[in-house]
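Need Proline/betaine transporter domain protein's 3D structure for a figure. Predict it.
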Amino acid sequence: MGEIIGAQIYLTEITKPPTQYSSVAMIVAASTVVGVAALGIASIVTSYSF
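Structure prediction for Proline/betaine transporter domain protein:
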């Protein structure tokens, strides 16, 4: 969670307002997709007893 907030603050500081909103939203979307993928992989691994 801290890495996401750090990335958002960093992108907020280095970009200008029109680009700023989409770049911060992309961080949120990417972290959500990666979290769901991690849960899916964990579910597959535990269901097949790897």
